[in-house]
Amino acid sequence: MLDRPISRKPKPTVVTSLDAGGKIQPQAVDFEEAILGAIMLEKEALKDAMETLQSKHFYSDKHQYVYECMLDLYNDNQPVDILSVTDKLKTKGYLDIVGGPYFIAKLTSKVSSAANLQYHAHIVIQKFIQRELIRISGQTITDAYDDSADAFKLLDATEKDLYEVKNDGMKRSYKEISNIINDAIGLIEANALKKDGLTGVPSGIRNLDNITAGWQKSDLVILAARPGMGKTALALTMLRNAAVDFQKPVAIFSLEMSAAQLVTRLIASESGISSEKLKKGQLEDHEWTQLHTKITKLSKAKIYIDDTPSLPVFELKAKCRRLHSKHNIELIVIDYLQLMRGDESGNKNANREQEIGYISRSLKGLAKELNVPIIALAQLSRDVEKRGGDKKPQLSDLRESGSIEQDADMVGFIWRPDYYKLGESFEGQQDMGEVIIAKHRNGPTGEAKVRYIANLAKFENWSDDPYGNTVEDGPTTVTYTSKMNTDQEGPDMYQLGLNQLHQNDAPAADASASDNWLDDTDTGANITEDDTPWE
To answer: How confident is the model at residue 239 (pLDDT cuts 50, 70, 90)?
Structure first.
């Protein structure tokens, strides 16, 4: 029989801060040390780490100092190893703070290779995000208990902070110019590879893209005109071109028209059937076929429409952040700026001009935050109507606030002589219009000539005409080959044209390679299905 163990007096329990309910922040110090050790062991490890890790992600301050020195060595094209890191820390005065040369040498013993670096980095970032969530939540709770705090501003600030955590942006700190120069040179080199010169989101209108090089990231673009000039038509044309022709995800916030009305306009533009016919549903059989055939590409485009009326700024910002996070939106259009609501704090002393100024500043901040171009349509004042001459708009005509001109990176105006009944001065150019770039913070100003098709409410390149000819000024001249000429010897030119239309530019079977006259000369019939005037 076993003897019963002697009962001992239990030791007094030592109560720590954790036992008393205290907490420490989420951290993964061992993984941080493994990452730093792996970087000094393998040459390519730092390049992998730089793709995801920033110094702020490390919990330990001394680990942040070591990682910053590693980045400095990399930017100076110096080797990153125990000796070089130790020397760099000594030069910057951090060596004694981190624990001396022994601490640096000890880091390499934490890991044998960089094989698991990405996994370790993922855990370190995960802990960083947890710490940020704790910080944001604590700040939000504190502010929410403050009766003087504005709830809408608090909601917007909290959502912005959470969005930045998700995208690992946080509030950007200062950068050394050496790093910025490297980024700028890389961007210039990437742009040099683009043969068409478009470095931003294309509008699909050549003359306009020649001035803008596409809508640039983080830019606020104001597109203004008098009512009925074609603001929405131009915005939808550019939106459609970006989404359909260049496969860019785009979004439009329409405060004036419903989503159904916008889509009807897009369908009219795409199908070539007037909005009036579509609205009444009075289509011929062949038009129904044309309708369903033409809108196939449009239905597959990534276009997101929000038609919430009287949209407040904070709600717009919340929706844009969600769209950008979920669908990676590359262009945002707002129709139009003056219909938006500003600060929801209920400031009774603010006038309309101050409210518009607040809206324009918020839109510029949002464009920079999401790093996407934002095109905001705007109304012009009646002053332009009182002006004599051709009545072309000026920056001073922007309605209700000078802040719009100040905050915008680019200001464009739409002008059509037909709108002001100036047909005598522009004979033969009744469908002509201009997009006037009056302000361009990062490029040239100028006037882009466009063609306005009223029955379809769309704009297109001025050099495009229904027969595919290229013209810059004056009326279009089109040459057709008569059917009477098909009796002569040689290839049937009329049939060649039809074959080229229906067989995607494939020449007729009885024609030689030299008979491909449509591609090389202006002679012959430029035929479309609906344009055979000799019949």
So the answer is: very high
* Bridge partners for 335 per DSSP: 254
For the chain, the average pLDDT equals: 77
Characterize the bridge pairing of strands 410-415 and 432-440: antiparallel
* Total count of domains within the chain: 3
User: How many degrees, rounded to 5, is the angle at CA 220 between CA 218 and CA 226?
Assistant: 160
d(CA 460, CA 468): 12
CA distance 202 to 247: 10
The span from the CA of 435 to the CA of 345, in Å, is 37
DSSP 388: -
CA proximity to 505, closest of 224, 231, 515: 515
One-letter amino acid at 97 equals I
- Whether residue 374 is predicted with pLDDT greater than 90 in this model: the reply is yes
Do 247 and 390 belong together in one domain?
yes
Look at residue 253 and give its three-state secondary structure: strand
Residues 104 and 249 in one domain: no
Instruction: Assess if residue 179 is contained within a domain.
Output: no
| CATH code for the domain of 153 | 1.10.860.10
- Can you tell me the distance from the alpha carbon of 134 to that of 25, in angstroms, rounded to the nearest whole number? 8
Return the number of other C-beta atoms located less than 10 Å from residue 159's C-beta.
15
Q: Which domain holds residue 84?
A: 29-166
Spatial neighbors of 485 by CB under 8 A, at least 6 apart, are 493, 494
Q: How many CB atoms lie within 10 A of CB 520?
A: 8
pLDDT digits (tens, 9 = 90+) for 79-101: 888 899 999 899 988 888 888 88
Calpha distance 160→156 (Å, rounded)? 6
* Spatial separation of the C-alpha atoms in residues 341 and 348, rounded to whole Å: 14
Residue 269 to residue 291: CA distance in whole angstroms: 11
Main-chain phi, psi angles of 110, to 5 degrees? -80, -15
Which residues belong to the active site? 256
The residues pairing with 450 across neighbouring beta strands, listed in sequence order, are 433, 461
**Using one digit for the tens of pLDDT, what is the confidence trace for 217-233?**
999 999 998 888 889 99
Please list the residues that pair with 453 across neighbouring strands: 458
Q: Which two tokens stand for residue 403?
A: 């802040």
pLDDT tens digit string along 256-272?
888 888 888 888 888 88
Q: What is the DSSP letter of 204?
A: S
Q: Are 292 and 286 in contact (CB under 8 A)?
A: no
Dihedral sign for Cα 403, 360, 357, 160, please. Answer: negative
Average pLDDT over residues 101-110: 87
Count of C-beta atoms within a 10 Å radius of residue 207: 18
What 3-state class would DSSP assign to 416? Answer: coil
